[in-house]
Write a structure and sequence with these properties.
20% of the residues lie in helices and 25% in strands. With 277 residues, it is α+β, with helices and mostly antiparallel strands. The chain has two domains: 161 residues, no CATH class; 101 residues, no CATH class. Strands 2-1-5-6-11-12-4-3 form an eight-stranded mixed beta sheet. It has a three-stranded mixed beta sheet with strand order 13-15-14, with helices on one face. A two-stranded antiparallel sheet has the order 7-10. It is elongated. The two termini are 39 Å apart.
Length: 277
């Protein structure tokens, strides 16, 4: 049987309450999990594509409702006074969990005209708008959470923003202190933007996986593509970084985002990348 539940704010022990049974909110989402993208904050999803978190039930930010066998009898009914405290609706359907974040803008409190067999005026009441597509789906059999925006679901899954890894001040300082970077124009740790802090976290992981000769090759690669964007001191083998924009190009280079098309030989920057391995 299908069920619709709500997550209610300020309820710590039993935050999930039952709204209605034998009903579902969304059309079925059919997706190939292998084709979904492991979450990357710098990746722009294609239309109808999804990010994924595999082994979701093993993550610290996975709520118990997804870890334990589901039984609707374990959930109390939603009380009328709790209606406006809903922060998320969960449609248990097709054996999976379809989730929608609920924001104040989705509540309707006004007189409406409804069209059925005949048009009728309905007085102001409590209504909640359900969107065409869920914000996230937990695929139980695959133990995988799929979603399109981490920012949207971060209030549903407390702690999931750990996926949105951002380098700490110390990690940023350690990166800017690399022997191939020369800071100038008073550019320092305090000037590094949040997007670049996220890119630094990724770049540090990439550099740590590289052998010494690969690090030399990556510097040559960056200089070959960014000679118009970055100043490179060949004697000292250092890139001069004066601002956040130059740092961004350096970080893109470490992630090997630059490429040349094989036919037109056009030099390009990949806005998003996805491994095909």
């Amino acid at each position: 049987m299908d069920h619709v539940l709500a997550k209610v704010k300020r309820l710590r022990k039993k935050p999930h309450r039952k709204i209605i049974s034998d009903s579902r909110l969304f059309d079925r989402i059919q997706v190939n999990v292998d084709a979904c993208v492991a979450y990357d904050p710098d990746h722009n999803l294609d239309e109808d594509a999804w990010f994924k978190v595999e082994r979701f039930s093993q993550q610290d930010f996975c709520p118990d409702i997804f870890r334990l066998p589901f039984d609707s009898k374990d959930y109390d009914d939603l009380e009328k006074a709790q209606f406006e405290d809903i922060i998320c609706v969960i449609s248990v359907q097709y054996g999976d969990f379809y989730l929608q974040k609920v924001s104040p803008s989705l509540f309707i409190h006004r007189k409406t005209i409804t069209f059925g067999e005949a048009a009728e005026i309905e007085e102001s009441g409590h209504r909640l708008v359900i969107k065409d597509k869920p914000d996230a789906v937990y695929l139980r059999q695959e133990d995988t959470l799929i979603f399109t925006s981490l920012a949207t679901i971060s209030s549903i899954f407390k702690g999931i923003d750990i996926l949105y890894k951002e380098a700490t001040d110390q990690e940023v300082e350690d990166f800017l202190d690399k022997d191939f970077i020369d800071l100038s124009d008073d550019y320092n740790v305090d000037d590094v933007s949040k997007p670049n802090r996220k890119r630094i976290a990724l770049a540090m992981d990439t550099l740590n996986r590289m052998e010494a000769d690969e690090r030399t090759q990556i510097i040559d690669y960056i200089n070959s593509y960014c000679d118009q964007k970055l100043r490179f001191d060949e004697d000292n083998e250092k890139f001069e970084i004066r601002n956040d924009e130059e740092l961004k190009y350096l970080l893109y280079g470490i992630e090997q985002r630059f490429y040349t098309t094989p036919l037109s030989r056009e030099r390009r920057l990949a806005n998003s990348v996805q491994s095909m391995d």
